[in-house]
Design goal:
Elements lengths: L13 H29 L8 H15 L4 E7 L5 E8 L6 H17 L7 H26 L5 E2 L2 H24 L3 H4 L3 H7 L2 H38 L1 H11 L2 H14 L1 H13 L4 E2 L4 E2 L4 E2 L25 H17 L3 H9 L3 H31 L1 E2 L8 E2 L2 H32 L1
Antiparallel strand pairs: 1-2, 1-3, 2-7, 4-8, 5-6
Helix pairs in contact: 1-2, 1-3, 1-4, 2-4, 3-5, 4-5, 8-11, 8-12, 8-14, 11-14, 12-15, 13-14, 14-15
């Protein structure tokens, strides 16, 4: 008897596979919110809430985790007018879960598209589009079902914001699996670049190296700021522990509060970055926390806030070394990359190296600073928060101030890094 050599089962359509992949991501990310709320509810923490009310709260938490703002309605005041506010806070530590799951889904969809008869790009985008539409439908459904008189999210925001967030993970995973952008776009980028002029290729390589240097500067500054935050928490651990003791909510409350703080640790690291640049941050309207002095009013009982600096700091200005050092690293990396085509072009235009070399280095520093400043603005935007209540509508750094200070300090460091690059490489060559 001859055994069949082909699989006679019907293949799953890519759009359906994409929908199932991100459906799993939505379910797993929901557990991050559902499990703590269920634990608190089962232990009697929500004495006045029914199971349905706790479920709606979990749905609202899932939306906030994805960056969806909630419109809050507060009871009428003494004048008879009802107040409202907008709660918006993205826990950058927790949102990594749906993003990583979306990245995994993107890789699986890219792998499933290899066996397609049609073009690879067309089949892949069919799967990605199905996944995004499914996630948008889930977000809109959660926004509809979790509405309460006290808090509600727009159906449009519930559909678009979570889908746009996981789209980055999907595309990153597909790009990782494909190995290049050309298969995803259906365009041979290498051939297109080959048809362009040499001058255009140099300009493109120069700009791409600038952008990567700026990204490296932001990444290095954020990493060093995270170390600074860890040191501050360690030095002020007594104050953190005192707030835990003052809350006295039992093991369940302590566990939930700790998970919540871990979810916001990346936000706090970016706030530390803003503090180190001198731009500072606000923890409530009218407050100011800078390396030179801090002025804050009453704060909520959140243990990690016990690590905040208080009063005047004698050596707080030394924190400015963090973004400057990140700029030094970016300038050195740009030198090692060997893509300073502006300097090469200026050298061809004039033999006065005493003039062209400083001019190209200054232009390089300004461009790296602008790229890092743009990254700082984005970091401030995603890390800011608003509780929609009273003075706590302004939490976090000012995007424009952070971008300007970070651009200036990284540019200064980039000049130093590019200047010492030849010396460092010469020493490395001797070894």
């Amino acid at each position: 008897m001859k055994l069949p050599t082909r699989d006679r089962t019907l293949p799953m359509p890519l759009w359906l596979q994409g929908a199932l992949e991100l459906g799993q991501a939505a379910l797993i990310s929901a557990l991050i919110v559902v499990l703590p709320i269920a634990l608190v509810w089962l232990t009697g923490g929500f004495a006045e809430r029914t199971a349905e009310s706790a479920a709606r709260l979990a749905g609202q938490g899932w939306l906030v985790l994805h960056g969806v703002p909630l419109v809050l309605q507060f009871p009428a005041d003494s004048a008879g007018g009802a107040a409202s506010g907008v709660l918006h806070a993205i826990p950058l530590g927790l949102i990594l879960v749906p993003l990583l799951l979306a990245r995994r889904a993107g890789r699986r969809l890219a792998r499933a598209s290899y066996t397609a008869r049609a073009s690879y790009a067309a089949r892949l985008w069919q799967g990605l589009l199905g996944a995004l539409l499914a996630y948008a439908a889930i977000g809109a459904g959660v926004a509809f079902l979790s509405r309460t008189p006290e808090a509600a999210a727009s159906l449009l925001a519930g559909a678009l914001i979570p889908a746009l967030g996981v789209a980055a993970g999907l595309v990153a995973g597909a790009r990782r699996e494909a190995g290049a952008w050309s298969p995803l776009l259906g365009i041979d980028l290498v051939a297109a670049a080959g048809r362009s002029s040499q001058q255009a290729r140099w300009i493109g390589a120069y700009i791409w190296a600038i952008l990567r240097s700026g990204f490296l500067a932001v990444l290095a500054a954020a990493g060093l700021s995270a170390v600074l935050l860890a040191v501050a928490i360690g030095l002020n651990w007594a104050g953190v522990a005192a707030i835990y003791e003052r809350i006295d909510g039992g093991p369940t409350a302590a566990l939930v509060l700790t998970v919540l703080q871990l979810g916001f640790l990346p936000n706090l690291a970016l706030w530390a970055l803003s503090w180190s640049t001198g731009a500072g941050l606000a923890l409530g309207a009218g407050s100011s926390i800078t390396p030179l002095a801090s002025s804050v009013g009453p704060l909520p009982a959140i243990p990690v806030l016990g690590a905040l600096p208080a009063g005047t700091l004698d050596y707080g200005y030394a924190a400015v070394a963090i973004p400057v050092l990140a700029g030094v690293l970016a300038g050195w990396w740009f030198f090692r990359e060997g893509e300073n085509h502006l300097d090469e072009w200026l050298a061809l235009q004039s033999r006065r190296r005493w003039l062209t070399a400083p001019a190209s280095t200054l232009a390089l520093a300004v461009l790296i600073g602008l790229a890092a400043g743009a990254g700082g603005v984005l970091a401030a935007l995603v890390s800011r928060a608003s509780l929609g209540l009273g003075r706590f509508t302004e939490l976090g750094p000012d995007p424009l101030a952070l971008g300007m200070w970070l651009a200036l300090e990284v540019a200064l460091g980039a000049v130093l890094g590019h200047a010492v690059g030849p010396l460092l490489e010469r020493d490395a060559g001797r070894r």
